[in-house]
Amino acid sequence: MTGSSASSRKVLSKIATNRLQKELVEWQVNPPSGFLHKVTDNLQRWVIEVYGAQGTIYAGEKYQLQVDFPEHYPMEAPQVIFLHPAPLHPHIYSNGHICLDILYDSWSPAMTVSSICISILSMLSSSTVKERPEDNDRYVKNCRNGRSPKETRWWFHDDKV
Amino acid sequence: MDSEDDMHDANDAESVDDDFYSGETAMDSDDGDAADYEFIDNDSDDSNDLVSHRSQQNYTILNETDIQLRQEDDITKIASILSISNVAAAILLRHYNWSVSKVNDEWFADEEKVRRVVGLLEEPRPLPNAKELTCGICFEVYPNDSMRSAACGHPFCVTCWQGYISTSINDGPGCLTLRCPDPSCGAAVGKDMVVSLASHDDREKYRRYFLRSFVEDNRKVIVLSFNFLIIDLRFFFISPLIQNGVLLLVVDYAVDFIVGGGTFDVTCRCSYSFCWNCTEEAHRPVDCDTVSKWIMKNSAESENMNWILANSKPCPKCKRPIEKNQGCMHITCTPPCKFEFCWLCLGAWSDHGERTGGFYACNRYEAAKQEGVYDDTEKRREMAKNSLERYTHYYERWATNQSSRQKALADLQQMQSVHLEKLSDKQCQPESQLKFITEAWLQIVECRRVLKWTYAYGYYLPEHEHAKRQFFEYLQGEAESGLERLHQCAEKELQGYLNVEGPSKDFNEFRMKLAGLTSVTRNYFENLVRALENGLSDVDAHGGTSRTGGSRSLGAGSSKGRTSRSKGTASRSSGSRNIDDSGHWSCEYCTFANAKSATVCQMCQQRR
Ligand SMILES: [Zn+2]
Ligand SMILES: [Zn+2]
Ligand SMILES: [Zn+2]
Ligand SMILES: [Zn+2]
Ligand SMILES: [Zn+2]
Ligand SMILES: [Zn+2]
Ligand SMILES: [Zn+2]
């Protein structure tokens, strides 16, 4: 996520603001385990720390997720990427883009940041190898101009991992 | 009369004195009854054939209402067979690509599984029984009665439903498989709910997706060469085809095509014609293979041919550039030159048409070549140039007829929108009495199309089939000149009745003439198309009908005096099998006039 595309983003709608404030309150009361949201006054961009779960190959490691919310959140999915360095994972590209269907086609407005986090953690936890997607280099090269993962036509990897 | 030969001979005998296309002569001598004027095929088998050929349409054009009715029929059918609501039936049908039988089979094989897959609950669940409910999207609390849910009972507020539905509709046809927003649920959101919550515009979009899905999902979808998604087999969208590169989301008309019944040509209600088989524009009498070869050839040669498409040529007499802005080939240079010439061959018009008894040779490549239009000095260079030159000849005529057709289409529209009313006013004729003009123009448009494709036909007609070529070129020449006559009458003569103060005395005669020409031309072209589709099977392979032009005209009339007037091919077709005056010898197989010194025919390589 580059600064330029973030600044071109439209401000949150009233519905989106209300909903995010509710999510934030809920998060503070009941945070998903393994995550830490460093609250700032920027409601439109959340940066969340992810802790690799015990007993998985990411145990003891710490990563950062950046979540950007569109004007019409939650009707539109947020953009979720890993900040550098992104975990080595067969569905996570070195530029931080994540191949996970609920972030794109399968998004539903009844999902929340919290439910996204849980899905991502479960995706990490089920991996048995630390490696990049096969098409990593090609994909990352294509994204060089700061293209959002939401503009990608995702062909989802099998969902076992 | 049982054989075609008899028929033609009889025709020749009966009508030696009026040329097939000499409309005026016929008008003058007859009392002007269009029925008399129209050529009536004497061979009864043949004419029946023609009638059945025309009436046997193997396709139906469906408009939106027709499609909708069929869709509703299927929905009602499934609803009553499975005893479910129409909304549920529509969800099922859409999931199984609108196949009634597939829905039936799957449902009765494993209803539970089908329900799970498409999201149809057996027992609808009501909203939770509480005074106030929290919306699963905005997390606001609302009184129970302002919440909605799909059959699953998951509550969302009206505003969130509206946003959810609107987002989905604007995302595309995926809205037809909308599910409950709850990620763990999957209950289908039916058409009734969408329609009740969507905005007016979104409702219309949804309705179109719904309709379109019936047409598209129903059938195998194929991708055409020009990147359109088109529906094969039974339904076919017209609008995407004619909208340059843009796939419209609008159901215009669809075509219900029954494969295996006759020809592939389909004419939509919007008057666009295309070939069902290859989806190119309609191309009778040539087959799909020839069309695709020809189109490939055109794109391969497109650079060479660009100059041909320029609609300007120098006047053959005064050399000033002349813009062709009319549909017919008869061009008159601007004053003071006023030279009348033929756009195709740049020859004097006086060598064409009526004055020479309808003889029209500018369609013949050999003739053009022999008359030095393509000045060839050195034999060797000529041979190398030959293939491109030959192609150029056919391509130019193909393209010219194409643009003439475009022009005629535009004229037809202009006629219908402006001129008919004016004419009706000027000539004190009700517009209903002016249908003959529209018919004439429709005929011109169709004939230009056929004629255009005859040049692709001619290009691929093997060189060595001389008899066929000769016959073909004769037929094509007649077609050109006949159509020219019609086109000119509809284009130029009509002007004389438009730009007048009061009714013209001879308007009725004009009507007779134009209607007559239309009908004669229609007949001729229908026969031409059939003859070409039969591969000119009347003609024996080797000179069996060396004077084919004389003894077998298509349709009606005689070929009075044509033999003596054919200039370009005279040396080849003189019928002499031996050495003629100039010392040439005529090939026994193909009649080509070879130089005295040659021992092998230049055309067909047969020994002398
Ligand atoms: Zn539900
Ligand atoms: Zn709501
Ligand atoms: Zn149409
Ligand atoms: Zn075709
Ligand atoms: Zn001139
Ligand atoms: Zn000419
Ligand atoms: Zn020969």
TrEMBL record, chain A:
Residues 15-161 form the UBC core domain. The active site is at C99 (glycyl thioester intermediate). The keyword ATP-binding applies. It is an enzyme of class 2 (transferase). Keywords: ATP-binding, Nucleotide-binding, Transferase, Ubl conjugation pathway. GO terms for molecular function: ATP binding; ubiquitin conjugating enzyme activity. Its EC number is 2.3.2.23. This is E2 ubiquitin-conjugating enzyme.
UniProtKB/TrEMBL annotation, chain B:
It comes from the Eukaryota. Residues 1-51, 540-579 are annotated as: Disordered. Keywords: Metal-binding, Repeat, Transferase, Ubl conjugation pathway, Zinc, Zinc-finger. The keyword DNA-binding does not apply. Residues 581-608 form the RanBP2-type domain. Residues 1-48 have a biased composition (Acidic residues). CDD domains: Rcat_RBR_ARI7-like, RING-HC_ARI6-like. It catalyses: [E2 ubiquitin-conjugating enzyme]-S-ubiquitinyl-L-cysteine + [acceptor protein]-L-lysine = [E2 ubiquitin-conjugating enzyme]-L-cysteine + [acceptor protein]-N(6)-ubiquitinyl-L-lysine. GO terms for biological process: protein ubiquitination. Pfam families: Ariadne, IBR, IBR_1, UBA_ARI1. Its EC number is 2.3.2.31. Pathway: Protein modification; protein ubiquitination. Residues 543-569 have a biased composition (Low complexity). PANTHER family: RBR FAMILY RING FINGER AND IBR DOMAIN-CONTAINING. Belongs to the RBR family. Ariadne subfamily. Might act as an E3 ubiquitin-protein ligase, or as part of E3 complex, which accepts ubiquitin from specific E2 ubiquitin-conjugating enzymes and then transfers it to substrates. This is RBR-type E3 ubiquitin transferase.
